[in-house]
Amino acid sequence: MNNKPLSGIRVIEVGQLLAGPFAGTMLAYFGAEVIKVEPPGEGDPIRGWRLLDEEGTSYWWRSLGRNKKSLTLNLRAPEGREILGDLLNDADVLIENFKPGTMEKWGLGPDEVSKRNPNLIYTRISGYGQTGPYSRKPGYASVTEAYSGFRYINGFADDVPVRPNLSLGDSVAGLHAAMGILLALLARKSSDTEANGQVVDVALYESMFNLMEGIVPEYSGAGEIRQPAGSTITGIVPTNTYLCSDGKHVVIGGNGDSIYVRLMTAIGREDLAKDPRLASNPGRVTHQKLIDGAIAAWADQLTSIQVIQAMEDADVPVGAIFSIADAFEDPHYQARGMFEQVQVPNRDDTLAIPAILPKLMGTPGSTEWPGGEVGSHTDDLLTAMGLAADRIAALKERGIV
User: Fold this and answer.
1) pLDDT tens across 250-263, in order?
2) Which terminal Cβ of the chain has fewer Cβ within 10 Å, N or C?
3) Which string of DSSP letters, residue by residue, matches 230-279?
4) pTM
């Protein structure tokens, strides 16, 4: 499709693993030409992470690498760095997530590159940002999620803080990077100066810290340190997870005043629905155990299907806790087009990968091809840069590409 909103934008992605590549995937989905620079041989390590297909390539890569052109360059070699510098001369965006100082060491830092391409949006993703006393520390998602304060509030009181079974810090940082790039592109478009590029500095810990809602002003204003609250959320009642008679859990959110009345009436507790102490949220917070106990006792006598039906009949927010298998079978997921089918090499059937959001009605994104093989676009890209066939062959011979 040529009406994608980022058509005509050229992005050079030299990040590996997840944060930088996830930002690149979002841009590629919505029409940017994303050239992924990978080391010769194995390529991005994520190609070999987690479950692998019969070709030895991770299923994850087919999603994360979609719509990207793969160019292999040995950036440890001067000639590889020279080719990358040439690529950046007419690029719109660079995404890199190396340890701070690496690009400067290679002579490709923003100060150097901006002399040749002052319009470049130089996007940097790292654990702790490009400045400050911790900037040179290694920062994987797990560590930076802890440092951000996210892990502190996640889990049950008096137990080990837990993490979701995802690299959440990386994905959230990728989202912030994509947003920063789009803001910088918008600023560049509206600028009347000749040099209108800029650096976008994204830190994993800051991206997670940005999700902390009211925790900062509550601490500053009232000295309150929010604690982990298990399956509830501090200061809002009732909203919890309840076990049903069939062994499945459902989430019920009845924290609005009128919703609370409908919820308690539906479970046969008109006494609690009419109790003046519980008419507003502050009173319900005080009596959380009473309310949660009543809902839990009711849910324990019914199957999850019965609980969901009763709550839906009462117009109370409710939902089952889905596995990915549940999502695949769910009609709403299917109706919303949340799964896209792609054909991958040496596979008879198609592979489902997730759609990239948000949904744009006028200029939607789409998957044009799944993540391809290492260096699959190297020859074409180098030829387009003006390199002759004999030089490309020599570069391959010396392991530069």
Assistant:
1) 999 999 999 999 99
2) N
3) TTSBTTB-SEEEEE-TTS-EEEEE--SHHHHHHHHHHTT-HHHHS-GGGS
4) 0.94
pLDDT at 174: 98
**239-320, which class in CATH?**
alpha beta
Q: What is the pLDDT of residue 151?
A: 96
Q: Token match 């939902």: residue?
A: 319
Domain boundaries of the chain, sorted by first residue: 10-210+338-397, 239-320
Cβ distance 85 to 12 under 8 Å?
A: no
* pLDDT (0 to 100) of residue 191: 79
In the CATH scheme, what is the homologous superfamily, with its name and number, of domain 10-210+338-397?
A: Crotonobetainyl-coa:carnitine coa-transferase; domain 1 (3.40.50.10540)
What stretches in the chain show pLDDT beneath 50? 1
Q: Do the beta carbons of residue 175 and residue 201 sit within 8 Å? A: no
**pLDDT in the model for residue 348:** 84
**170 flagged as catalytic:** yes
Q: Which of 44, 92, 170, 201 is catalytic?
A: 170
